[in-house]
Specification:
mainly alpha; Cd81 Antigen, Extracellular Domain, Chain: A; elongated; Tetraspanin_EC2_sf; membrane; Tetraspanin/Peripherin; TSN36 protein
């Protein structure tokens, strides 16, 4: 389990590099770091449990039980906090995404990240393609279109125009 958690934590950190402009808050990596720390702690606890079982130590097994109970209480607390603050996290991420979309000009680093995100997630805008209508880029292009990264991958002649929403 510790090895699996280590892999997940490392994968999240590696994936973060592609989306770091959207997740401008450096605390976005905190869950991945916590996952890796939990993996290390799980390895140590597992080692204590194995050694206590192997030596048939009542004190060691009691310590192992106490540690497992503390971990269970921490997991329940984390679940409750995640449930309570889910809307705040959602609005914070959406606000950050809207600010990155505002900086879109088709050439800067934020633009590259927006295009990458829309292509990978096969989406357009924060909620839908109409989010682009309030951006500076949309108003400056004057051609009533969204970036080509909004186009469906199987559409070869997509221009990103809003009068053809079936292609977005």
């Amino acid at each position: 389990a510790a090895a699996g958690l280590s892999y997940v934590g490392a994968y999240v950190i590696n994936t973060y590099k592609s989306y770091d402009n959207f997740l401008q808050d450096k605390y976005a990596l905190l869950p991945a770091v916590i996952i890796i720390c939990v993996a290390v702690v799980m390895f140590i606890i597992g080692l204590i449990g194995c050694c206590a079982t192997f030596r048939e130590s009542r004190v060691g097994l009691g310590l192992f039980l106490a540690i497992i109970l503390v971990i269970f209480i921490a997991e329940v607390s984390a679940f409750v906090l995640g449930f309570v603050y889910r809307e705040k996290v959602k609005t914070d991420v959406q606000d950050t995404m809207h600010s990155v979309f505002e900086k879109y000009n088709g050439k800067n680093a934020e633009s590259t990240v927006v295009d990458y995100l829309q292509e990978q997630l096969r989406c357009c805008g924060v909620k839908n393609y109409s989010d682009w209508t309030t951006t500076q880029w949309f108003n400056s292009t004057g051609n009533n279109s969204v970036p080509l990264s909004c186009c469906k991958q199987d559409m070869k002649n997509c221009t990103g125009r809003l009068d053809q929403p079936q292609e977005l």
